[in-house]
Amino acid sequence: MIGGRTLTTYAEEEVFSKDKMQQLQLERLKKTLARVEKNVPFYREAFDRSGVSSSEVHTTEDISRLPFTKKQDLRDNYPFGLVAAPMDEVVRIHGSSGTSGKPTVVAYTENDVSHWADMVARAIYIAGGRKGDLLHNAYGYGLFTGGLGLHNGSERLGCATVPVSGGNTERQITLIQDFMPRVICSTPSYLMNIGETMIKKGLDPRATSLAYGILGAEPWSEEMRRSIEEMFGIKAMDIYGLSEVMGPGIAMECHEAQDGLHIAEDHFLAEVIDPETLEPVPDGEDGELVFSSLTKEAFPVIRYRTGDIASLTREKCSCGRTTARMSRVKGRIDDMFIIRGVNVFPSEVERSILQMDELVCHYQIHLKKKGSMDHAELHVEVCEPFFQALPDGDLTDPVAQELVKKIQYVLKTQALVSMDVYLKPPNAIPRSEGKAKRIVDQRTAEAVK
Ligand SMILES: [Zn+2]
Question: How far is the C-alpha of 400 from the C-alpha of 411, rounded, in Å?
């Protein structure tokens, strides 16, 4: 039930006219601004500093006059400094792991949890899930929003929800075979890992009951999507979310078009900015995604800089929905590396790798220092048949060295990056049971030596 209705078609907000959506957004934005200005000293002071008051926001575009919020602001106000509701109205707390050791903390009222469940139910429906489906949820349960976020939305839609969580791949496979789910939720890299493990055990991933995958929580490429779809014989859809803004379900790709992720615009106002100049960029151009929440009570965010690079389109989708769509996330600003003046995201390297039949999608990029220059090494696994055909599995064999040259050529011409390439035997790169680790940064360690 979504707002008292069983979801059997679009939610009405998904097919609003632009005017109607903007009117709803403005009304909700004003309420949100008044709430944070009244209850959160951080926002009150930030608005004061920039000389704008929430009462001066008359259109949704006026949001660009307000200051940004960054992850550091969440850390500075750890744990509950940004909570905009009385603590006795908070019914849920989540967090995300931080590099500094302490998580960034977010909170939800009962209404927040309910809106979130509605959004995720809608997202699962957009991806092809239906009431009565069995949904295998391999997202991690815990402080991370992935597991419980998907879980509540799945129950809200009316799916039989299996809270498997991440890890224990053998058990994942047993439950997929025995329970016969129609939908699976996971990170793309972990689903790949499950598929490979099945093949190793002599099982055919295409023979499972799975029809749809709802995959996200890490940047992935179109080529990775095709590999997963081929491996399992399913349709794989991209889901977007981050705990600082809400959790999964902020945007979801439709199974009809698989062409960009529909943003839940009745709950979030999306912008894309140039991360250097902080100016808005036009639709269709890549920049940093920025979200403001419109309905959250306990933890509203105003112009939160996500660090994720993507673009927006406001053209109507062939599925019929009118909501703005974001492109798949190209990468995180933190993961971007610069080699000889060229900005590179791991997902661009991944796209090149997956075009070659000799390689599988298990790779790591090691960043090192050579003198004062940054230098990147690609460590990538070859596929089993290629490895078996090499004399004694010798990766220095001329055939393997030819492959190295070919990879370097593809990287140079497509991702515009020069990298040293190291071929690895099958299973040499650590497998992910959650978010894959694509970048190994050894620059600081080497600089100390
Ligand atoms: Zn669509």
Answer: 17
Give tens-digit pLDDT for 119-154: 999 999 999 999 999 999 999 999 999 999 999 999
Q: Write the CA distances from 11 to 7, 16, 29, 125, 151, integer angstroms.
A: 7, 9, 21, 10, 20
The predicted-structure confidence for 2-26, as pLDDT tens digits, reads as follows: 554 567 788 899 999 999 999 999 9
Rounded to the nearest angstrom, the distance between the alpha carbon of 197 and the centre of ligand 1 is 33
Give 240 Cα–ligand 1 centroid separation in angstroms. 14
Distance (angstroms) between ligand 1 centre and the Cα of 347 equals: 23
> If residue 374 lies in a helix (H) or strand (E), which one and from where to where?
strand 373-382
CB 228 within 8 A of CB 218: no
What residue ranges do the domains of the chain occupy? Answer: 1-332, 336-448
User: pLDDT tens digit string along 160-182?
Assistant: 999 999 999 999 999 999 999 99
Q: Element (H or E) spanning 242, and its range? A: strand 235-242
CATH of domain 336-448: 3.30.300.30
Q: Assign domain 1-332 one CATH number from 3.40.50.720, 3.90.1150.10, 3.30.720.120, 3.40.50.12780.
A: 3.40.50.12780
Rounded to the nearest angstrom, the distance between the alpha carbon of 446 and the centre of ligand 1 is 47
3-state SS, residue 27 = helix
Task: Please give the distance, rounded to the nearest whole angstrom, from the Cα atom of residue 217 to the centre of ligand 1.
Answer: 20
Ligand 1 centroid, distance to 435 Cα (angstroms): 26
